[in-house]
Every structure is written in structure tokens, then in C-alpha cells.
Write a structure and sequence with these properties.
By secondary structure, the chain is α+β, with helices and mostly antiparallel strands. The protein has a single domain, classed as Nonspecific Lipid-transfer Protein, Chain A (2-Layer Sandwich), CATH 3.30.1050. Helices cover 41% and strands 24% of the residues. The protein has helices at 7-19, 22-25, 79-92, 101-106, 118-126, 128-136, 145-151; strands at residues 30-39, 44-53, 55-62, 73-78, 112-114. A five-stranded mixed sheet has the order 3-2-1-4-5. Helix 3 (79-92) packs antiparallel against helix 7. It is globular, with a radius of gyration of 14 Å.
């Protein structure tokens, strides 16, 4: 498994979702930029994921929030919560109900959605199932759950 988080990890998810166009097509188009913000005790990492139509068109690591478009939606949380979600996806083939983006953001904890305005925040919830399909791509071709945790640093 490609280490999480990394540019390679998000690029692999991009390639997987684009290789199976029905994954997003059955849910509808997505037009948004998502910034995944992973909080560590001593640093922060940010990854930009851009969706247009039925495709994920770009992923990249960004050093500064100003490097993302003004209308980007930020999904942030502690590394431990992200790691648990990804491990759960790998173990189950998709997120179980306790590890979906919906559940993890429902009470604004452990993950939190942030944007410049309420309309952009609403986009996150409108496209949430599409985003879940994107993250569930972590299970495609992943090793068994027993070895997955060792690869998530």
C-alpha cells in the first residue's frame, strides 16, 4: 500500500476513481476543490483534490492555505482520525458506517468542514457520497487489514 498521507496516495485514489467512471457517474457530477488538512502534533499537511464533472482532475500537496483556490472546502482533522478511517476502508473494502465522511463530520468531530461561506460548506455535504467513493478507492488493490496499518505512517 502507498503510504498515507502522500501525494502518491492521493494520486492513486485519483487514478482509481477515474479508471472506473461509473463510481462517480452514478452519483452525479462534482465540481469542487477539497483540501484535506491533516493535523499532527508538530505540523500540518494539506492536499488539494480537484473534481470536475465525473473526474478527479488533480491532486497535489500544498504548503499554505493561500495556495488553494478561495472557494476550496477544507476537511480537517487529526492524523489519528484520518489513519483510522483509511485503515477501516482498507479492512472493509469501503468505510463502515462509523467511518464515513458523514459520520466523522456530523458533530464537527473528529473531522471538521470549513469554507469561506455556507454555500461552499453545503457543497461538501451535497457531494459527500462522491467524496466517499473517492476515499473508498483506498481499498482497491490494498493489502489485507493486518498489514495495512504498518504502511500508514
Amino acid at each position: 500500500m502507498i503510504p498515507f498521507p502522500s501525494v502518491e496516495f492521493f494520486e492513486a485514489l485519483r487514478e482509481r476513481v477515474n479508471a472506473d467512471p461509473e463510481r462517480l457517474r452514478r452519483l452525479g457530477t462534482v465540481d469542487m476543490t477539497l483540501v484535506v488538512k491533516i493535523d499532527y502534533p508538530d505540523r500540518v499537511e494539506r492536499y488539494e483534490i480537484v473534481f470536475a464533472g465525473y473526474h478527479c482532475v488533480r491532486t497535489r500537496q500544498i504548503a499554505n492555505p493561500a495556495d488553494a483556490p478561495k472557494d476550496a472546502i477544507v476537511l480537517e482533522g487529526p492524523y489519528a482520525a484520518w489513519r483510522e478511517m483509511i485503515n477501516n476502508i482498507v479492512a472493509n473494502g469501503q468505510a463502515d458506517l462509523e467511518h464515513t465522511l458523514n459520520t466523522l463530520t456530523l458533530m464537527d468531530t473528529p473531522l471538521h468542514v470549513e469554507s469561506d461561506n455556507q454555500l461552499d460548506t453545503d457543497l461538501f455535504y451535497r457531494y459527500q457520497q462522491n467524496l466517499q467513493e473517492f476515499f473508498d478507492g483506498a481499498a482497491i488493490g490494498a493489502p489485507s487489514s493486518a498489514s495495512a496499518g504498518a504502511h500508514l505512517n
